[in-house]
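Quick note —
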Amino acid sequence: MTSKIKKIIKKIPYFNIFYSRIRAYKSVHWRKLNKNIYYPNSNPTNNVLMATSLGDYEMGSLLESTLSAALRLRNSTVDVLLCDSALSGCQMSKIESISPEIMAKEGPISRCDSCINYGKNIFEGAVDNKLYYSEFITSDEYKLAQELSKKIPYEDIKSYKYDDLSIGEHAYAGALRYYARGDLNKEIYGEHILRRYLESALLTAFCLNRILEKNTYDVVCFHHGIYVPQGIITQVCQKKNIRSVTWNPAYKSNTFIFSHYDSYHHTMISEDIDRWKNIKFDSSKEKNIKEYLKSRRQGTNDWIWFHDTPEENAEKIKDELGCSFNKPAIGLFTNVMWDAQLHYESNAFDNMLDWVFSSIDYFSKRPDLELFIRIHPAELRGAIPSRQPLLSEIENKYQTLPNNVFIIPPESQISTYALMDMCNAVAIYNTKTGIEVASEGIPTIVAGEAWIRGKGFAIDVNSKNEYFKILSELPLKSKMPKDKQIHALKYAYHFFMRRMIPIPFIKFDSKTGLYSSSLKSAEKLKPGNFHGLDVICDGIIKGTPFEFDEEFSN
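Predicted structure written out below.
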């Protein structure tokens, strides 16, 4: 099929979903292996609930069906939980495939059949039991969820709690993800869709409560740990003191990040620094992390990257921006506004926009400095392109930008890494690029919930006053002290080399955007064949740390 035809197909409503499913069924062959696999466990030592929920989340279904079979080979019983159209709003709902009008009136029903069938097929043979949402929600609970989702005042939804669960927070995050925006203010159907997510969040809570009351599980495993339904699953497990494991695809090719008890959005901030502070950081480890960080400039070792031909030439960067770099340069590196909008106590600002606007206002009074705002390329090139571009927000607020403030838009090929090399200091909100900035010894100011907060090498701020006090000290007289840079490199090593656990047979096709498995035999899932898989299964079964030892290469 030619690329021209593919582009035409993608513009046809709903057909793109059907087309992607055809490709997915062709590329995913793990379900074929599963059909002939059954692992009877007469004396299981561990009971696992694989709370996948979203059968059509291809990466989730692929990895979790694989993990289910691997866990059963390690003497565990595994049940999978899947949605069967019970939820009227979920992570599989996106504005690019379901219009707001249809989503508000009908919900995601147009893709439910695909989701149900795909989940049912890929888990065939890999689990002991398939559980479905509607089996664990009573008619009274459906009515209660509908009533509550309709009567709660709109302005109270985000902070709404039910049974001490942050139902509203995850419903709001789910609606923002659907819209790919940082707020719902300008969306005609925004309130209707938010209420759908609220209803679904309540139903998820009812479902999980009943499952965990009727069945005994040692651990619940699922992806993301935020949004709807996964964020509610996290909170129900926390309240019932049942161990949970969440995961996300990582940046390095064929790797994943797993966390205990909460989403990695939280655990990477709260993680005990003793997990990495005292590791033996020899010359070999230092060389490995520096080589990997260097590779990230081109994305050669990653399956998530944003520049095809990054521009690193200083003179060309100057020409594109119309600047001279004759004054000390300060970087402001943003993140995508809608992504993982959760509440963090440590935030110095109300949100990222508040931080950006406050920074521009401050630097307008500092003509001795130049501010370079690097808008995150994922606004355009991410899995879900943003519908609330930061540049538009800036242009709406400022008719004319100060002469010393320069914007690098998301489509620009200017290398973020080349830009940071020119900076006296860099301020971030929650972008993970802060790890790389600090690893280069560049002073890094943390104004939001970035993962380098509290690690001992960044400049953490907890209030606006603190932030402006730090800015008043710019330009800084020197780079980060050498001992702190080593500290930052240690953390980078921990994050990229230890926390990102490889499963080499999970493949990603950048041309189609599809994941697949190259596994030829289920026997390979037994212990001892893939160190990364062993680390993950041990973490799920035994609660051991999800940390990979790079001395093992498989």
